[in-house]
Design brief:
The structure holds two protein chains of two kinds. Chain A has nine helices and eleven strands. By secondary structure, chain A is an alpha+beta fold. The two termini of chain B are about 10 Å apart. Classes of the chains: A alpha+beta, B alpha+beta.
Chain lengths: ~280, ~80
């Protein structure tokens, strides 16, 4: 079972479907934790390099696995306490948008850090909860401004981002306070880069695995380019889509473009070998 | 071998507007950040934005960033500071 559901689910099916994890009470607690860690003053924080720096890369480069593992564990401890994400499906985003309040559409800090993307092209991030009320106080965090959306408007925005091929992740700001709904892609998302390039799990896999029904798959090959996780490839010999369950993050983006409904999302818990692969 | 990327901030006054190096890097090695923490009620001035080599493990030392920088602010060196 997912560690976060165990700790913070409080009887809800998933920890992120528990409204208590979006509450003002937690928002107040998280402020002190983040200040204590100095995360906001770290220029690399927005680039997803929280706790992973040159020391890690050098150790990896010289094949010093002991140091790599030590630093990886430290990065995990830090990230999982302060700021980490989990991939969720489009349906789950819709569920969350129903009870989470307020919803603020804002610019993406990762894309600003990676590409210096101008604000008007960069509205791909959703901030959630009481933290959004202070946006005018923090002009730099909310560069380009913020617009509050109704649940229905937010669903439309998220649907169009999904169509563009962006993966939805929920992020904590002082775990378990959930304050961000990021829409990510490789290589411009700092979080996805950290997890895919360095296996430092600042983004957890979601609760589902995509599975191909090879009877139904017509080999149109629309789905492989939707995968941000290098889990989905097109088999030239079978002329079908192939999904590696160990690499699948369960975002459902491939399923969303499949015209013949050959891909379905299976609950990770029902597959013993990947049930604990996060 | 990990390269070292040095950016002379004095020669890089406004990376947020210029962003040529960020756009040219094929593997997104470079990161744009600020050298000050966010302040209440104001945006960080352009001069406080800095470019750094972040994801060095994917740098192939192709030198595209060095070549494109209009002010010659970026230096990429391989082992022990020897210019590549």
């Amino acid at each position: 079972m997912c560690m976060w559901c165990e700790r913070y689910g409080e009887g809800f099916e998933r920890w992120y479907l528990n409204p208590a994890n979006y509450a003002r009470r937690l928002y107040k607690i998280r402020k002190e934790e983040i200040d204590a860690a100095g995360a906001e003053s770290n220029p690399q924080a927005a680039g997803g390099m929280l706790g992973v720096g040159r020391e890690f890369l050098e150790a990896q480069d010289r094949g010093d696995t002991e140091t790599v593992e030590r630093l990886r564990k430290a990065a995990h401890d830090f990230s999982w306490t302060i700021h980490f994400g989990q991939v969720i499906t489009l349906e789950e985003v819709h569920q969350v948008l129903e009870f989470m309040y307020p919803i603020g559409l804002m610019t993406c800090a990762c894309r600003r850090s990676m590409r210096g993307l101008p604000d008007n092209e960069n509205f791909t991030c959703v901030g959630m909860g009481p933290g959004m009320y202070k946006w005018e106080r923090w002009s730099d965090t909310y560069r380009g401004g913020l617009s509050f959306l109704k649940p229905e408007e937010a669903k439309e925005v998220i649907d169009s981002l999904s169509l563009r091929g962006l993966v939805h992740c929920l992020y904590t700001f002082g775990t378990p306070y959930l304050g961000g709904l990021c829409n990510c892609d490789y290589p411009d998302c700092g979080g996805l880069r950290t997890v895919l390039d360095m296996d430092v799990r600042v983004v957890w896999k979601g609760h589902y695995i995509a599975e191909v029904d090879t009877e139904l798959c017509n080999g149109c090959a629309l789905c492989p380019k939707r995968c941000q996780f290098k889990a989905l490839s097109f088999s030239p010999s079978a002329l079908k889509a192939y999904i590696d369950p160990m690499k699948c993050f369960g975002c459902g983006l491939c399923r969303n473009v499949c015209k013949v409904n050959a891909i379905r999302m299976v609950d990770r818990a029902t597959l013993p070998t990947v049930a604990n692969v996060w | 071998m990990l390269p070292t990327i040095q950016v002379n901030d004095d020669k890089c006054p406004d990376p947020l507007t210029c962003r040529k190096c960020l756009l040219t890097c094929p593997t997104r090695v470079l990161g744009l950040g600020t050298n000050v923490a966010p302040k209440k009620y104001r945006e960080t001035p352009p001069g406080n934005f800095i470019v750094r080599g972040v994801r060095l493990q994917v740098c192939s030392a192709c030198m595209k960033c060095v070549e494109i920088c209009p002010n010659g602010a970026i230096q990429v060196t391989l082992d022990r500071g020897v210019a590549a």
